[in-house]
Write a structure and sequence with these properties.
Beta-Lactamase; alpha/beta; globular; 2 domains; Rossmann fold; 32% helix; single chain; six-stranded antiparallel beta sheet; nine-stranded mixed beta sheet
């Protein structure tokens, strides 16, 4: 086994053209499109980098070095590599012959979680009133799903929401690749494992989820829902495991539930579609939709209550509690917007009251304004 420090120094030597970007906290992703083209994402915006690799072989040497460290094959028969750098940054690489003019490499930077609620408010990602609602919902053990596109800030928001979990609770985190960083005193972290080159030894998210249910979790956090584990999660939600948190890829609140439904159907358990939709509508109580704007900023666009599923109408019943309103760009090209209460009060208000919580005063005021 290669010593971690020796490996890190060796790999950074191979990655010299992009090494500075891998140390820059403002860079969230490094993209290598063959030896002659490098792009970086800095503060949410893509920019071309002037650096170049000497040859295609230089990039391949770095990838072979990484593959050796993580004990995964990388050759013409295995042209796709998923791995992590020593600092936790996620690497996805595709090499020829699959990559027509590659090799292509994307490095998603590992960013230690430093986003506090006050920082997100300062950035305009959410408002104080929206924060107050989310805190009440997490503390009251509502089941919350965070959804958005790639690079929209789902995991960062999930980390922030988890800070509201009371300190006396046992939290189990299940991930495909370690990204969630919970600042909590009692966290059990579980990470899925792919099969080896002989197809043996795989441990899936579903395997870990089933083990989790026998480990006395007060909270279950899934870093990203990607497949059949969606069914396990929603069945846990409706069978007494409140306070579940997770993320998934989707663009709008209604799309989030449709996508969750599709992933649940990937399960090997044959469940009637109507029964599945009723469980999803009952189990998930709150959707938090996030997006990356054209100016590179990230923020919450909707906080939406899930009120069930109407079998007669054939649709999920949703109620927006907060919606982002846009006012165009300022002189510097930054998007001007604000996250405001819709005027609707959630049907789960009695649950909040039972737990000694409430929605913020601004939501009550907005509701009274609509009534008038």
């Amino acid at each position: 086994m290669i010593d971690r420090e020796i490996f890190q120094n060796t790999l950074l030597g191979f990655l010299t053209p992009v090494a500075a970007y891998l140390r820059d906290p403002a860079v969230s992703e490094v993209m290598i499109n063959g030896p002659d083209q490098i792009f970086v994402e800095r503060r949410g915006l893509l920019e071309a980098a002037p650096e170049r690799f000497e040859s295609e072989e230089d990039v391949l040497c770095a990838l072979r070095n990484l593959a050796q460290f993580v004990d995964k094959p990388l050759d013409e028969r295995h042209p796709i590599l998923e791995a992590r750098l020593p600092d936790g940054s996620r690497v996805q690489a595709v090499i020829p012959p699959v990559a027509s003019s590659g090799p292509y490499v994307s490095i998603r930077r590992f960013q230690p979680s430093t986003l506090t609620p006050s920082h997100l408010i300062e950035l305009g990602s959410l408002s104080r009133d929206a924060l107050a609602l989310l805190e009440s919902c997490v503390r009251s053990k509502l089941n919350v799903m965070v959804a958005g596109g790639t690079g929209s800030g789902k995991t960062s928001l999930l980390n922030m929401l988890a800070t509201f979990i009371p300190p006396g609770e046992r939290v189990v985190v299940i991930e495909d690749s370690k990204e969630v960083q919970l600042q909590h005193g009692h966290v059990i972290g579980l990470e899925a494992r792919p099969a080896d080159i002989h197809g043996r030894g795989a441990v899936t998210i579903r395997d870990l989820f089933r083990a989790t249910l026998r480990m006395r979790p007060d909270r279950i956090v899934i870093g990203e829902v990607r497949g059949g584990e969606a069914l396990d999660l929603v069945q846990a939600m409706v069978s007494g495991h409140g306070g579940c948190l997770g993320t998934l890829h989707a663009t709008y609140p209604r799309d989030t539930l449709t996508r969750f439904e599709t992933m649940a159907l990937m399960s090997d358990l044959q469940l009637p579609l109507g029964a599945l939709r009723l469980q999803i509508g009952s189990g998930i109580q709150l959707l938090v939709q996030v997006a990356r704007e054209q100016d590179g900023s990230r923020g919450i666009t909707h906080i939406t209550e899930v009120m069930g599923y109407d079998l007669n109408e054939g649709q999920y019943l949703l109620r927006d509690l907060f919606v982002r309103h846009y006012h165009g760009a300022d002189a510097q090209g930054r998007m001007r917007s604000e996250l405001l209460p819709s005027g609707a009060l959630p049907s789960f208000l009695p649950i909040l009251h039972k737990c000694g919580a409430d929605v913020p005063a601004a939501m009550h005021a907005a509701a009274r304004a609509i009534e008038r």
